[in-house]
Amino acid sequence: MSRTFVGWPAFPRAAEAATRNEQLRANVRRATGTIRGKRARLVAERPDWEALRDSAAAVKDEVLAHLDSYLLQVEERVTAAGGTVHWARDAEEANRIVTGLVRETGAREVVKVKSMLTEEIGLDNALEAAGISARETDLAAAIVQLGDDLPSHVVVPALHRNRAEIRDIFVREMGRHGRPAPEGLTDDPPQLAEAARLHLREKFLRAEVAVSGANFLVAETGTLVVVESEGNGRMCLTLADTLVSVVGIEKVVPTWRDLEVFLQLLARNATGERMAPYTTTFTGVTPGDGPQTFHLVLVDNGRTRALADEVGRQALRCIRCGACMNICPVYERTGGQAYGSVYPGPIGAILNPLLKGADDPQTASLPYASSLCGACNEVCPVRIRFTDVLLELRHQVAEGDAEVKHPAEKAALRAVGAVMEHRTAWNAAVRAAGLAGPLVPKKKLPGPLGGWTDSRSVPEIPKESFRAWWKRTDGGTK
Question: Rounded to whole angstroms, how far apart are CA atoms 441 and 450?
Fold first, then answer.
């Protein structure tokens, strides 16, 4: 079975291990720095960049405000174009639908266009359990799969790997899954690309079923849009007899005119290119051209939960450009796998808790995986206010009953809350704290409180509280 993030440690423990890996830090820093520089140069070419961001945010908010209507319009248009629409409430239902559709064809292998949603729901493992091999065809996703690895970035899943590591993976693994790597393969990028091309071409030509995601879904025509850099996605979308597209319900845009806004933003923000090399659009079934059977699986899997959060729903605007990761100092030092999800970085720190709930033990620490510097706010093409959502999620964790909290911490917080509700008890507690100040250890607090001082110093506790000083000095006038 393929590796998954199921059972992954919470961010603090995963990040502690990641930051000790010097090669990982170097790989991530080099890659994000390069993309960041290219993005900045190309964004500076557009005097209307801020207006495009405003438009994109407005379009996404319009969709989220009327999502039910737009999804019904999508279903109507896709069906009219010869496709079949399926609805999946969660990962289990989505995997069951896709596995059943592939089984009906009799295929034992499918080719896949890179899709974060299928990684989110664990589709590859579900297909494998049903005796169906799912082979990734996006180059970076193929590197991750061949290396039995996990993705670390939404645009460049193998960003944490350098050329030498990729060469070793190709030599070691390609022969086990199809055409082997050429003799004498080096880590020269053109040679690596050619090895991948030869290995994957074999799979494209014999594939009967392809599975894709979509960057956008145009409601007015039921058209799906896939944006990529290599053309491997287009091979999947045109050569197979059956195409199954697995798409999150938030990917809708109302019209082609709205799509124009996002296509101007995405490539510049994601990879520092004026235009994506391949933008493929497809609508239903066309007799004699491309797949003759088309299924669209619309997946919720926590998205309506996120939609119900008044502050957090803006995370559903995300178009997966990855710019927030490329600018984030926390991501640069920890890499993407520390976040325990296919969605790492700032967007992962807010989207994962919104999809799963802030009290989930694996995601409860993610809102704290940020310095709140706000750099992600400035580069987001759809104006997600990451810091606002992070603070709201921190509030939800603090107020909730997250398993990440130590039992002693929960008891202490309940006790403090009870005392603060009574003025007399609180004033007495504040006076007692002032008197006890000299007895508090300066470097390490005792027992379960010790974790607090692992990265902090105990502040000086004043003998007199502010309230007492204010009363004694009549508001500072004495």
Answer: 10
Distance linking the first and last C-alpha atoms of the chain: 74
List of residues 6+ apart from 438 with CB closer than 8 A: none
Q: Which residues pair with 107 in a beta bridge?
A: none
> Tens digit of pLDDT for each residue in 87-141?
999 999 999 999 999 999 999 999 998 789 999 999 999 999 999 999 999 989 9
| Alpha helix positions (H), 400-462 | 407-420, 423-436
Q: Is 426 left (phi over 0), alpha (psi -120 to 50) or beta?
A: alpha
Average pLDDT score over residue span 337-358: 94
Please check whether residue 114 is in contact with residue 237, taking contact to mean a CB–CB distance below 8 angstroms.
no
Beta-bridged to residue 278, according to DSSP, are 228
- CA 355 to CA 363: how far, in whole Å? 10
Nearest to 156 by CA among 327, 384, 323, 376: 323
Contact between 313 and 330 under an 8 Å Cβ cutoff? The reply is no
Q: What are phi and psi of 445, to 5 degrees?
A: -75, 155
Residue 402 has what pLDDT?
60
Q: What is the pLDDT of residue 435?
A: 78
Maximal C-alpha separation, the chain: 91
For the chain, what's the residue count? 478
SS3 41: helix
Residues 6+ apart with CB under 8 A from 72: none
- CA angle centred on 177, ends 173 and 182, rounded to 5°: 60
Q: Residue 449 above 80 pLDDT?
A: no
Assess contact for 226 and 233: CB atoms under 8 A. yes
Q: How far apart, in whole angstroms, are the C-alpha atoms of residue 363 and residue 357?
A: 8
- Cβ contact 273:121 at 8 Å: no
Please give the pLDDT value at position 128. 94
Q: Using CA atoms, how far apart are residues 237 and 282, in angstroms rounded to an integer?
A: 8
pLDDT-based confidence at 1, cuts 50/70/90?
low
In this predicted structure, what is the pLDDT of residue 5? 83
11-137+205-303 — its CATH code?
3.40.50.10420
pLDDT over 90, % of the chain: 73
Q: Domain coordinates of the chain in residue numbers? A: 11-137+205-303, 321-399, 407-473
User: Which of helix, strand or coil describes residue 423?
Assistant: helix
Going by the DSSP 8-state scheme, the letter that residue 432 receives in this structure is H
